[in-house]
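Risk register update: the risk of archive-format incompatibility is retired. Evidence:
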Amino acid sequence: MRRIPLVVAAGLCLLVSPAPATAADAADASEPSPTQPEPPDEVSLTAQDASVFVPAGWVQVPPQAGATVVLRAAGDVDAQIEVRTSDSVGPPRQPNYFSTFHSNIKQAGFEQTSRKEGSCGPHDGTEVTYRGLIEGRSFQLVICQWTVSQRVWLVSAFYPRAAKQFYYPGFQSVLAESRFD
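Archived output:
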């Protein structure tokens, strides 16, 4: 398989001061800090009348070209969940939209290993799984695709194949807990 360069998003840095804890710190620990808000558990997509659930252990990062939302596994730049959506795509053009998307994945050197018609979370859709080698490491790419009215949705998970048990459940929770209208 052809090698594919990894896209590395800008890292998030959290600086923690090593100051000693005080009784006041312990008392304030239960209250959220106004300067460090808790990470959101969903990303609102106002233009699409949708929202994307952010599972525990995942953080939102700036999306790459074509993506609407990108979530990265906290502490692992090799695992991400990506949400893509289209503008209005009529039913006659929807199969071509999906076909073009999957052709690009195959051209990048990924090999399709399974295709399941049925459900993607609560949506009727198709789950397609690929595998690929990147710099000698084996990765898995899982894509769920469906349409709602005239809008095409593609939600994908990319992670090291050996770590499926850690990352696939997060992908499933994004599908189940998000609202894609």
